[in-house]
């Protein structure tokens, strides 16, 4: 599909956030142009949890039913000390508060496929192999911004939505700063991996000894080993033997180690980590490694999610606007909620008085929520990162004790499910 010369709304990035923004606009009668630098959807180990609040938001654009048909409807997240459960984040117990009392477990690539197919039904096709390299005010046109691409093409747009990830080109070209809201450390100020906690995420097929029971209706964190097992249904045409199972695993690596894990771990590395961290005597054999990557755990939020450049508007969603620890699986969820809110704000701006207050309000409200999520994920990450020894034992005892306090248990479930962030 060729790139048009002009468009009212240009969405840069065809991950779940960019697609959700374009879908929201399409349902409101506005066809955005969506560009993506990649040639195809990524199948990497990225988001895999879709929470209750996100499903509520997706229902407003007609996507919740499509998504419910894929993946596993998990009852929640259970934290363990060795093999003993000590705290159950019971999302299933929220049935009186939400239509979606579960965590939908599905690879991000599967959700993206559904988003893109629905967008295509609205007559919008993603234009791939289109890498943005420039953005400037266009004073010669009513379309306020001129965006240039690596292949030499350009497009004029009134609104440019940056949905192009943590290293967002759109955010950088717009001159919007990106730093930790607590420490004011810029996102790329300290690139040394050893200074950060890291998490290896891997999609794997496991052959699990029959003596080992890892529940397939919840996400399981084993805190003493700093390892998580998240059950997934196999994506696409992948055929799995009935004795094997498909999982996302997370391996937390504390900061300050003399050696850093590989950026893209191989089969041997993942198997060794499982062997060292699993709390059971029985074997867990890595039958197949589909994809794996190691991420530095950092937090940052954009100074603003909206910036006017001349008579053009730059707006940010998802990782372009905020990043944080993957613990708790909030990233894709926060971004999708951003995207639907942004689509509505742009539509209101186009169809209404074109008062920039509606876009500024989007920025203020979503940034406030992003900071709250960053603070919550930092607390959860700190719990995972407690070293083994007496501190770990005390933390485990405290978690077990508070698990009997119903208001605390429900508050944690409410926040994890995203219901805290309802408008």
TrEMBL record:
Cofactor: FAD
Leader sequence segment: none
InterPro entries on file: FAD-bd, FAD/NAD-bd_sf, RIFMO-like
Keyword Oxidoreductase attached: yes
Key words, A-Z: FAD, Flavoprotein, Oxidoreductase
GO function term, MF aspect, one: FAD binding
Pfam families named in the record: FAD_binding_3
Domain FAD-binding: residue ranges: 7-376
Domain of life: Eukaryota
PANTHER family, A to Z: BINDING MONOOXYGENASE, PUTATIVE (JCVI)-RELATED, TRK SYSTEM POTASSIUM UPTAKE PROTEIN
Name assigned to this protein: FAD-binding domain-containing protein
